[in-house]
Sequence to fold (591 residues):
Amino acid sequence: MEPTRSVPARPKRARRIAACTALVLSAGMLLAAPASADDAPAPHRTVTERPTSSTGLQPTLTLPKHTTQKQKAAAAEGAGGAVVAAKPRADFDDDGYSDLIYRTYDAELFISPSTADQAYAFEIPGKVPSAHKDIIPVGDQTGDGVADVLTLSPYGSLSFRAGMSAAGTGNAAWTGKGWQIYNKVLSPGDLTGDGRSDLLARTPAGELYLYAATGNTTTAPFSARVLVGKGWGTYDQLIGANDVNGDGIADLYGRTVSGDLYFYAGTGSKAAPFAERVRVGHGWKIYNQVIGVDDLNGDGRGDLLARAVNGDVFVYLATGNGGELATRVASGTGLNVASLLAGAGGNPDFGKNDLLGLDTKGTLWSYWSLNNGTLTPRYKLSDDGGWKGAKPFHASSLNENTLVDLLEVFDGGVYNYSYAPGPVPKISSNWGSYNITVGPGDLTGDGKGDLLTRDTSGYLYVHPGNGTGSGFGARVKVGGGWNTYNVIVGSGDFTGDGRADILARNAAGTLYMYRGTGDVHRPFLSPFPVGKGWNTYAKLATPGDLNGDGKADLVGVDRNGSLYLYTSNGSGQFTAPVRIGGGWGTYSILN
Fold:
């Protein structure tokens, strides 16, 4: 079925954000900086609710035909009974094959079942429906025959949801906190040989830990972590593939930044769960996501899906020869509609995938990512001239809805619009001394979005977010000398370690990368140069992830008004620029 577009009168995304903001207004304002009698009234600028752009868009998938159970048994017998079919991790329609869960770039959650031609809405309960940082299928952990999932919140809460179904009705039976210390959490399947799906978790430093499943899904579903090894940060994608080689134990793939694919066969040992790696492919950097989807064709072995930047989908079937894969088969289009794919190998990305522009006439416009290196057509957010003279900016999500926040600095205060109608909350005061404000994401390591400011004396400060978008903790001084830079920008992770980073350009045109640490008292490592000649751009902005690989990207507007995209390569540098549009000189502010 060909994708179509439609624009509802009041989009679900806008309703969700409005509801979240209503909660902030009713409950969170107690956390905001107190207003004094001398404070100026809140600005009364209008903000139009943004329509969804993914409504009606669905990928077209043509997956391999399933073999019958009789054929599967015959294949196992012909192989000497060597193939022991692992239980699928995401089988929600009970047909013996995994289904695909994805979230669109408008925060709508869908499931594409193996038994149906079309995807349909799928809801997992939470504080903000569908606003999970990641979704991790783990198969049937309770023994009731129904698939279960783990959901990861932006603030590090990992929840076990028992009894999921095709309708998506699982409530949290267990929740553990503190998982924001990892940049990647995944379940490859059963690593220890007890029939239960286990967990792997990787730190930004590249340490990989195993959490073995216990079977106690209500109070302690996983045992204490065991260090698997170090140096796993070399992979920008970790793909749990279930059982690839037919021995009944889960296996793992890792893709390097340069595009080499390595296979780790599972051993069944908790102390040393993987055999030595084997290089099984190269050239995989053409894909922005590689997804472990279990057995697609019914031969009992785990297979892979790979998504190209333009949204095209390819199937790689396991050959049975270790981790080697058969030649790829084109299997669909349009999967760029998904900003989150359950089982995807990349670090989960959230918080900002948008670009905000204030034109010279004072009208506010919005663009958002299509996950293919392009932006949507612009959408008018305000009345003509309604924001003339204003200082708006986008901040990576300040609450758990994982969506960008629209803020304004006005008369020494900061106001949070959050795309919602009604009174605009003032979330901080005494902002008049700052000449730069940036919302790069989490700088303190708690998962909550923060702000970064520079004052007129050149001092840089972190303002820790309170997690509701309604206020900030006491500012923390980073250091002085930052007035050497004429541009400071950031929105997410440029370097592939899962931590928020920033970029800064000096007057000579040299661009520097500051890698995030997750430590509020020392939020950045020493800078390293990205390159020279960046003063060719009149404006630099960071829209978040534009090409769907989970890493933040950079755009620049030259003196002719052309917009150029620089995508992150995962090592702190950027790919060659690509011109993606003209006429961008119309904007006085772009972020």
